[in-house]
TrEMBL record:
<dbReference type="GO" id="GO:0003992">
    <property type="term" value="F:N2-acetyl-L-ornithine:2-oxoglutarate 5-aminotransferase activity"/>
</dbReference>
<dbReference type="InterPro" id="IPR050103">
    <property type="entry name" value="Class-III_PLP-dep_AT"/>
</dbReference>
<feature type="binding site">
    <location>
        <position position="133"/>
    </location>
    <ligand>
        <name>pyridoxal 5'-phosphate</name>
    </ligand>
</feature>
<dbReference type="Pfam" id="PF00202">
    <property type="entry name" value="Aminotran_3"/>
</dbReference>
<dbReference type="InterPro" id="IPR015421">
    <property type="entry name" value="PyrdxlP-dep_Trfase_major"/>
</dbReference>
<feature type="binding site">
    <location>
        <begin position="97"/>
        <end position="98"/>
    </location>
    <ligand>
        <name>pyridoxal 5'-phosphate</name>
    </ligand>
</feature>
<keyword id="KW-0032">Aminotransferase</keyword>
<protein>
    <recommendedName>
        <fullName>Acetylornithine aminotransferase</fullName>
        <ecNumber>2.6.1.11</ecNumber>
    </recommendedName>
</protein>
<comment type="similarity">
    <text>Belongs to the class-III pyridoxal-phosphate-dependent aminotransferase family. ArgD subfamily.</text>
</comment>
<feature type="binding site">
    <location>
        <position position="276"/>
    </location>
    <ligand>
        <name>pyridoxal 5'-phosphate</name>
    </ligand>
</feature>
<dbReference type="GO" id="GO:0042802">
    <property type="term" value="F:identical protein binding"/>
</dbReference>
<comment type="pathway">
    <text>Amino-acid biosynthesis; L-arginine biosynthesis; N(2)-acetyl-L-ornithine from L-glutamate: step 4/4.</text>
</comment>
<dbReference type="GO" id="GO:0030170">
    <property type="term" value="F:pyridoxal phosphate binding"/>
</dbReference>
<comment type="subunit">
    <text>Homodimer.</text>
</comment>
<dbReference type="InterPro" id="IPR005814">
    <property type="entry name" value="Aminotrans_3"/>
</dbReference>
<keyword id="KW-0808">Transferase</keyword>
<dbReference type="InterPro" id="IPR004636">
    <property type="entry name" value="AcOrn/SuccOrn_fam"/>
</dbReference>
């Protein structure tokens, strides 16, 4: 037998973490890494955060799981918190980002198809954008135009049309009598930390209003305080109809949510959707601990402030290596360095030779997505490692 016990869908690297301490990971062999990847924008509070550990331990010892057949005081508390702090009126809890996006897609379709005479039953298409990432389920790979995720999985789910990102006219041209909604990441994550422009986001909102479409935001990566606002839509002065959130919301515990307005959720009636684990008491305890830590003006202000300082230093830094780096982009502590070449080799070099963890992304970008609790010491260590990494980097021969 040559297949590995872990299904070999990830090309796993030699970093083998066994312990986390605040903003560092410690490998099996004792190597210490500075973690500016945060489990891909998940560990907002870093590793071994006492409040989060305490909340999970306490809930685990009290009640971990019951089914959604019963009333949920724990779910009501977190849902109310999200309703109070966002555009939304109602929340469905999931265990992952892809499930949150699935629920968002179902909510948009049901808005048109499950509202009696009020709906337009012929509407099912969702417009999405080039290089988007929405997850790995059949619906969410179908929602992306990235062929590398489609290969081997035909047939895809019907009903998605793709426009270039940040191109309002192209999105407008795809709207037809079957269009149900528009799904977009306000800041593309996997696509290379590419923030949508103000005109684009405001324009999508206006198009949805004009045509009776659902504006669905995928904030799985950019949401939950990452950009210095609780959700990134707040930067744009617009609100969505439906929003998918996950990654950071559990601080490392698997949790996601689909948040919707009352109007948008009109098709999501009894029996239309469900999840066995979704919103179980243990997940709710983790979510509440994260929300209590991050959903306040002091914390959000600090993230914005740290993001500005990190960005300013990055911009100064890349000026020293004009042959390597093109620009810095992003918001808050969701930053990307666009390189003048493929970014993966530099990401590997930082990881293997300088014990600095970042994440490679599309469009030649290195993602800088540290825990939101970094301080000056971690920022200084980051620049020490990054500078050493840039100085010692040998650009691979073009293949
Ligand atoms: C990670 C991600 C997802 C998928 O989340 P999973 O928890 O891996 O299912 C969806 N959308 C965006 C924008 C993401 O970054």
């Amino acid at each position: 037998m040559s297949i590995t016990p872990l299904m070999p869908v990830y090309p796993r690297c030699g970093v083998r973490p066994v312990r986390g301490e605040h903003c560092h990971l410690i490998g099996e062999d004792g190597t210490r890494y500075l973690d500016f990847a945060s489990g891909i924008a998940v560990n907002l509070l870093g590793h071994s955060h006492e409040g989060l550990i305490g909340a999970i331990q306490k809930q685990a010892a009290t009640l971990m799981h019951v089914s959604n057949l019963y009333g949920s005081p724990q779910g009501e508390e977190l849902a109310q918190w999200l309703v109070d702090k966002t555009f939304g009126d109602t929340v469905f809890f999931t265990n992952s980002g892809a499930e949150a996006v699935e629920c968002a897609i179902k909510t948009a379709r049901a808005f048109h198809q499950n509202a009696g005479d009020a709906g337009d039953k012929g509407r099912f298409e969702i417009i999405t954008f080039h290089n988007a990432f929405h997850g790995r389920t059949m619906a969410t790979i179908s929602a992306s135009n990235q062929e590398k995720m489609h290969h081997g999985f035909s047939p895809l789910l019907a009903g998605f049309k793709y426009a270039p990102f940040d191109d309002l006219e192209a999105a407008k041209a795809l709207i037809g009598p079957q269009t149900a909604g528009i799904l977009v990441e306000p800041i593309q994550g996997e696509g290379g930390i590419r923030p949508a422009s103000q005109e684009f986001m405001a324009g999508l909102r206006a198009l949805c209003d004009e045509h009776g479409l659902m504006l669905i935001l995928d904030e799985v990566q950019c949401g939950v305080a990452r950009t210095g606002k609780l959700y990134a839509y707040e930067h744009y002065g617009i609100t969505p109809d439906i929003l998918a959130t996950a990654k950071g919301i559990g601080g490392g515990f698997p949790l996601g949510a689909c948040i919707a307005t009352e109007h948008a959720a009109r098709g999501m009636t009894f029996g239309t959707h469900g999840s066995t684990y979704g919103g179980n008491p243990l997940a709710m305890a983790a979510g509440m601990a994260v929300m209590q830590a991050v959903a306040n003006d002091d914390f959000l202000g600090e993230v914005a402030d740290k993001g500005e300082r990190l960005r300013a230093r990055l911009e100064q830094f890349i000026g020293n290596y004009p042959e390597l780096f093109e620009l810095v982009r992003g918001k808050g502590l969701m930053l990307g360095i666009k390189m003048k070449m493929e970014s993966r080799p530099f990401y590997v070099h930082l990881r293997d030779n300088h014990q600095l963890l970042t994440v490679a992304a599309g469009d030649n970008t290195i993602r800088i997505i540290p825990p939101l609790v970094i301080g000056d010491a971690e920022m200084d260590e980051f620049f020490d490692k990054l500078s050493a990494g840039a100085a010692s980097f040998k650009v691979p021969e073009a293949a």
